[in-house]
Each structure stands twice: as C-alpha cells, then as structure tokens.
Design a protein that fits this description.
The chain has helices spanning about 15-35, 40-50, 55-70, 75-80, 85-105, 105-125, 125-135, 140-170, 170-195, 220-225, 225-260, 260-285, 290-310, 315-325, 335-340, 350-365, 365-375, 380-400, and strands at about 210, 215. The chain is an all-alpha fold. It folds into two domains: about 5-200, Up-down Bundle (Growth Hormone, Chain: A), CATH 1.20.1250.20; about 220-400, Growth Hormone, Chain: A (Up-down Bundle). It has a two-stranded antiparallel sheet with strand order 1-2. Helix 1 packs antiparallel against helix 7 (about 125-135), helix 1 (about 15-35) crosses helix 8 (about 140-170) and helix 7 (about 125-135) packs antiparallel against helix 8. The two termini are about 20 Å apart. About 50% of the residues are buried.
Amino acid sequence: MIAATGVDESSLHYRGWRVVLACFLMAFFMFGFGLYGQGVYLAELQRAHGWPGTLVSAASTFSFLLSSVLVVFTDDLLARIGLRALILCGLSALGASTALLGVMQAPWQLYVAYALMSVGWTGMGTVVIATVLNSWFARRRGLALSLAFNGATCGGIILVPVLLALSSSLGFRSAMLMATVVMVVLVLPVVVVFTGWPVDASLNPAGSTSRGGEAVRHSRKELLANAPFWTMVLPIAIALLAQMGFIIHQVTFLEPLIGRASAGLAVTLMAAMAVVGRLSLGLFVDRLDPRLACAASMTSQAAALLVLLQSHSPTVLLICCAVYGFSIGNMITFPPLIIQREIGSTAFAAAMGLGTSISGIVSAFGPGIVGLVRSVSGDYTMAFAMCVVLDVVAAGVVLWRPGKRVKVVAS
C-alpha cells in the first residue's frame, strides 16, 4: 500500500513535492561531490601535493566499491535508525569528507575522506531517494523520480564549474570548505523539515509491519532467487558498464577528431540532454511499460554509438552525443519503477539496495574494460562496438518477463 494513493499527487500543495525538493538537493550535492567532483579532486590534489594520479584514482575506485557494498544494508539502516537519521548521517559523512579533502596533508587521509564519502552515498544516494519517493507517490512516481534525479546531473553541470572557479581564485582548500558550508546550510533545514514517511502509511519500504508490531525483514537470499529481480538488475548493470566506459573515454575519443573545445562541448551537450531526457520521460513514464521504455533507451544508446563510430563529421558526432545523453539519466530511474511494479513495496528498499550494489560493482569495471580493449586493438572501434553489443543484449534481457515473485521472509 502506498500512502499517496488516496491524495491528489498533481497538486502543488501535496507534501510529496517538498520531499522531491529535498531529494533534488541531496542528489545535487551527493553526485556533484561524490561523482562528478572526483575529476576536480584528481587534478587539484596532484597539483597541491604532487601525489601520483594512480594514488587518487585508486582511492576513487575504493570509494565506489565500498559504496556498492554499504548500500546493500540500506533497508536495515532505515529500519534501525529511521529515514531522517540516516540522511543526516549521510550529510554529516559527506560534509566531513569534502572538508577533509580540502585540508588533508597525507595520503592515508585521502582514503579516510573517500570512505566517509561512501557513507554519504549510503545516506543520501540513489537507494534512499528512490525509497522515500516510492512511499510518497503512486500515480506520479516516475515524474517525482525524474525531477529528483535531475539534481544529480545539475550537480555535475553547476557544482563542478563552481569548484573549479573557486579553486582558481581562492585555492582548493577554501573552495572545498566554502562549498561544504553551503551544502550544509541548504540541505540540513530542508531534510529536517520536509523528509519523512507519509503519516498515514500502514507500511513503508523500509519494512512492513506485522500484527505484533514488529518489522518484517526481507531475505536477500530470496531476492537473489527472484527471476524478475535478475532480469532487471543484469541488463541495467550491463548498460551502465557500457555507459560508464563511454563517458570516461568520451573526451579521449573525440579530441583527435574534433578538437579539445568541441570535445568539451560534446560533454556539456550530453549532460544537458540527460536533464532533458529525465524531464521528458518523467512526464510520460507513469503511463508507459518501464521495461519497454528501458529497452528503448538502451537501443537508442547503441544506435548513437554505432553512428558515432561511422562518422567523422563534427555535427554528426555532437548529435550522437546528444542522443546518447538523452537516456543517460534514465538508467537510474527505471529500476525503482520496475521493482515497485513487479516485486512490490514491502521489499522495495531491500531490492533497491541489492540491485544498486550489483550494478554499481559491475559498472565500476566499465572504464577499465573499455580502456583494455582500446589498448589491445589500438583504437576505440572495437571498444565502442563492444558497448553497442552490450546495450543490445541488455535491451533484450530487460524485455524478458519471468513470472516468479518475491517471497517475504520474516526474521
């Protein structure tokens, strides 16, 4: 049962839209600092301390993998400490991480900062955002998710240039401390005032309520034996692997063909189209089959990459990047929609946590695999052709609809 079912979700007075605002800000700073900002840290820490790029890159990999492990336990944390407390813990950890990045002096502090950032992902990342919005929305769930997750892309578009500008004018230390203070000032009151479960919900995605009032927990073993779960997780993981590989290597591929400035424009255009894609999908996705829409998005990315490999025209290459970007953001919007329809609300947080962990671990290898294929073959043709094949395979798998449903297991 979703609490939002009996209310007018289209009304601007509905409290759920204020929850969307809180989730937008969480995604803005979490993805801005935790994902897109990592390129800034790599450059600035090398410049400030002379640390090798491999050291900072290894810390990034460590952070992503640790985040993928910790996120599995999101449903347990929601049940044990509650939604607002988990988000505030995530905000505190992220703030400590970004402040430490600005003042650190030794390499071991880098790993402490990135470990704290992983805790931030657990409290403010995709799983928490999707879980809380799932409890507030039924008919407008897709639009709510799209609007909230647009904060992630806006974080890359806005926060990264701001960090670079502040680092140039004030220094990296001051830039990170200032940005951290701004984050806390903006996010803290919004989280405290707006976030929470619907007051009339008889159950929430963190765990349903049994007759005795005890939370019913969901076995991850049962989820791993659930066929619909795997036909959602595997194709998303495969598509994200290809997507991460292309995004990381995009500039390196395009620069010899169209120059550094145009390659930078391609990245900006792709990011902007990710916002447009999320907003466009959000307007209609609640009336669409999420599996079919997901397969269409994967196919469009495969087609864009295929044309990209066949052309040397700057205009065509930019159009391909725009088409590819249109579906980038939606890859994290589809899983919660599919889980809600096919697995249900009571196992939502557990399924989101486990699925996000699996896809996160798999996709983390995307840049390395694309780089390896490129090194072996001598150019990006084989590497991006592999990404095309992966997208097509993923589109086929996500259309498979096995009938087995999740079993709820009480602990």
